[in-house]
Amino acid sequence: MLPAEDLVETGGSQDYMIRMGILQVLKTQFLCHLIICYVFLVSGIIINLVQLCTLPLWPINKQLARKINCRLGYSISSQLVALLEWWSGTECTLYTDPESYKLYGKENAIVVLNHNFEIDFMTGWTFCERFGVLGVLAKKELSFVPVIGWMWYFLEIVFCKRKWEEDRKTVVESLQNLRDYPENFWFLLHCEGTRFTEKKHKISMEVAEKKGLPKLKYHLLPRTKGFCVTVQNLRGTVTAVYDSTLNFRNNEMPTLLGVLNGKKYHADLYVRRIPLDTIPEDESECAAWLHKLYQEKDEFQEHYRQTGRFPGPITSPPRRPWALLNWLFWVCLLVYPLCMLLLQLLLSGSTFTVVCTFVFCIAVSVGIRWMIGQTEIDKGSNYGNKDMQMNNN
Fold it and tell me: What sections of the protein cross the membrane (predicted)?
């Protein structure tokens, strides 16, 4: 027989496992997903309306309007951070040198990140949030997505159609607007232009062979024009480029649906800080520098595949409580009246009311599934699938 203390310990462990099992099952339930997405959508629309009310302030005090919109935008985007950190429980490990670590969050930077995963934007936001900054460069289509797209519009995010002839003027104007931005920002660039797939990689490497460029194993050929223009226009405003490479342990391919189901992942991010003044100003030299950078990124990916880790020391930036507190605030504010409304509708006994409520829930779930679909790799854009597009470098 086991000693009494061992029995108590074993019993406690079993109770803990049972509780965790119940919690994990609860996280996979549609009702929980509906509540989470309801809170996100309704709070987002409320915030979008408040952002709309800041428009008259822009000609009077532009910097104050920007600061207000930064806080309002944080209230939306941090909900996705809370979903990843607290609901999913995903762990985030940072590989970087200690001297660079001291500067993160205290300077403006251009972040060059690989584009392989459906939730790389959430992971990037999580690291940004831990250092008190948020930033992104988004494709034009996302500007029309409710809540997030509208929020980005008020944050003066640079939207691009990914047709350089049309994008250049818009991108330059948007970059110039960032020169007097009142908050620290990280300008995120996916220089590959689109998410990595085997089909796109094959086409990209055919282009590399035609152009006499070294082939890459884990990345697409970087598109240099956007990077060069960004560097040219942000000199004097941005002090460094953060070369960032993201991976998930155990070769996992995380999805937003998996996060919503409470599945836990472990993200590893390798970051090198490169002073901006070391990057050539000449466009052709800058392009050559970027190609060399991606060759090095490929080597880092190979090192990770072979060893299960990136080179250099490990740091785990602490979670900040603000994302969770913001999320709980909106849950408390919005869920109670929803429950009371649904209860009244059900008690009314009206078949029409019940049917309308049921149809509304289905419509919400379809809308949510559509928004999730925007992040899925197999439903991603066809950008990069055509040889002529890949040649537009």
Answer: 30-50, 142-160, 324-346, 352-372
Contact 290, 222 (CB under 8 A): yes
Q: Which of 1-15, 48-62, 148-162, 165-179 has the highest mean pLDDT?
A: 48-62
Residue type, 43: S
Among residues 138, 92, 146, 142, the alpha carbon closest in space to that of 115 is found at 138
Arithmetic mean of pLDDT, 345-350: 70
* 41, 147 contact by CB (below 8 A): yes
Instruction: Using the predicted structure, report yes or no on whether residue 356 has a pLDDT greater than 80.
Output: no
**Three-class SS of the chain:** CCCHHHHHHHHHHHHHHHHHHHHHHHHCCHHHHHHHHHHHHHHHHHHHHHHHHCHHHCCCCHHHHHHHHHHHHHHHHHHHHHHHHHHCCCEEEEECCHHHHCCCCCCCEEEEECCCCCCHHHHHHHHHHHCCCCCCEEEHHHHHCCCHHHHHHHCCCEEECCCHHHHHHHHHHHHHHHHHCCCCCEEEECCCCCCCCHHHHHHHHHHHHHHCCCCCCCCCCCCHHHHHHHHHHHECCECEEEEEEEEEHHHCCCCHHHHHCCCCCEEEEEEEEEEHHHCCCCHHHHHHHHHHHHHHHHHHHHHHHHHCCCCCCEECCCCCCHHHHHHHHHHHHHHHHHHHHHHHHHHCCCHHHHHHHHHHHHHHHHHHHHHHHCCCHHHCCCCCCCHHHHCCC
